Amino acid sequence: MKNIKKCFMLAVCIFTASSLFGQQKDWAQFGRYAEANKTVKTPSKVVFMGNSITDGWWSTDSLFFKTNGFIGRGISGQTTAEMLVRFRADVINLKPKAVVILAGTNDIAQNNGYIAMENILGNIISMVELAKANNIDAILCSVLPAYEFGWRKGLEPAGKIIELNKMIKAYADRNKLTYIDYHSRLADERGGLPEKYSKDGVHPTLDGYKIMEEILLPALKRY
């Protein structure tokens, strides 16, 4: 009888602990910008939605954002699904005139498991449709080149990135959206991000970001 009671109590403890963990886990990381969002003066100019490339952009060249009145809302490691979930909190509620969406690298890297190309595009399209419904102009960006992911090797991402970029551009063209092509300017002969623009082949250095700014700024002058 004592053993039965012990087993029961152990099961209750495990269930309680797992439930608390599930409640505490902020999957889409709403908490990352929760406080910062409260201080944003609305309406804002332009919000940058993305992953570590957008996140690192702010830390590498924050003057670019501050000088132009742009807001960075990138979170390292995020896939398009996570960005879509937090799109209302980190974009719509800030009431920007435009949103710059740079997404897809971590989907191809399978950070949350395999996802088909059409579903990656679908998540991006859903962000665009949410933006449109709230009178926010959506600007779509090409995924940056990458020959290999250091944290998940063997996926051969270079060709997959090119394929996804073609899909994003085709959608942008059909819907008369601005498409920003970083890939063509930054890619080397292998379809990767060269050492002169990146230390790890994925994330840009300041020189890489400066080229991206040069490509992007003309499209943002109206804002």
UniProtKB/TrEMBL annotation:
Domain SGNH hydrolase-type esterase, residue spans: 48-211
Gene3D superfamilies: SGNH hydrolase (3.40.50.1110)
Signal peptide: 1-22
InterPro entries with a match to the protein in the record: Ester_Hydrolysis_Enzymes (IPR051532), SGNH_hydro (IPR013830), SGNH_hydro_sf (IPR036514)
Keywords noted in UniProt: Signal
Name of this protein: Lysophospholipase L1-like esterase
Lineage, opening ranks: Bacteria, Pseudomonadati, Bacteroidota, Bacteroidia, Bacteroidales
